[in-house]
């Protein structure tokens, strides 16, 4: 079983922020406005906390849930770069997927197989909950779809990056 001491400071920060990158990645995959983006990010955060607490029998998840410190936030300019809004959103999506790959590699190397599997599944659940939090398309909540094709593609990419699909 892994604890905070199992990881370097950078690895621990990565494990803590990867779920946030996933939920923001959903918003970047198919931007649909401020309120929808907020709903998606909040849904991802709620899924993360619910999963950490429901798996608190695993030392890693208990340690992640107990850590109330504020992790360092990466430089936004480095994440999204320059270019059009669409190019910046694409850059963020790729950065999010890279965080998923890196975090799951660290978990696979240093945590138990049960913890690694639960962490990978948590990242996928965060993507799914975030995507389902707000409708895409439509007007004033009328019409649209719960999960857009672009969001579905990102969910599939998260699954692959996490080693689940």
Overview of the structural elements:
By secondary structure, the chain is mostly helical. It is 68% helix and 0% strand. It has seven helices and no strands. It has helices spanning 9-29, 34-54, 59-66, 76-80, 85-110, 113-131, 149-161. α1 (9-29) runs parallel beside α6 and α2 crosses α3 (59-66). The longest helix is centred in the middle third of the chain and has 26 residues, at 85-110. It is globular. The model has no long low-confidence stretch (mean pLDDT 91).
What is the topological layout?
Layout (H helix, E strand, L loop, with lengths): L8 H21 L4 H21 L4 H8 L9 H5 L4 H26 L2 H19 L17 H13 L4
- The radius of gyration computed from the alpha-carbon positions, rounded to a whole number of angstroms, is 16 Å
What about the largest sheet? Answer: none
Distance between the termini: 25 Å
Structural class: mainly alpha
Low-confidence stretches: none
Query: So what's the overall shape?
Result: globular
Helix content: 55-70%
Number of helical regions: 7
* Strand segment tally: 0
Average residue-wise pLDDT: 91
Element string (H = helix, E = strand):
HHHHHHH
| Residue fraction in strands | under 5%
Briefly, what is this?
This protein is mainly α.
Notable characteristics:
165 residues, mainly alpha
């Amino acid at each position: 079983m892994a604890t905070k001491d199992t990881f370097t400071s950078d690895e621990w920060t990565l494990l803590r922020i990867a779920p946030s990158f996933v939920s923001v990645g959903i918003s970047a995959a198919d931007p649909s406005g401020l309120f929808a983006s907020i709903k998606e990010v909040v849904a991802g955060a709620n899924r993360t906390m619910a999963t950490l607490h429901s798996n608190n029998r695993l030392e890693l998840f208990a340690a992640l849930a107990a850590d109330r410190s504020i992790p360092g936030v990466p430089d936004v300019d480095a994440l999204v770069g320059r270019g059009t809004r669409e190019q910046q959103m694409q850059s963020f999506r790729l950065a999010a997927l890279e965080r998923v790959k890196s975090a799951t590699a660290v978990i696979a190397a240093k945590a138990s197989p049960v913890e690694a599997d639960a962490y990978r599944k948590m990242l996928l659940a965060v993507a799914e909950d975030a995507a389902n939090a707000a409708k895409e398309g439509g007007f004033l909540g009328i019409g649209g779809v719960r999960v857009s094709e672009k969001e579905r593609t990102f969910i599939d990419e998260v699954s692959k990056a996490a080693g689940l699909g």
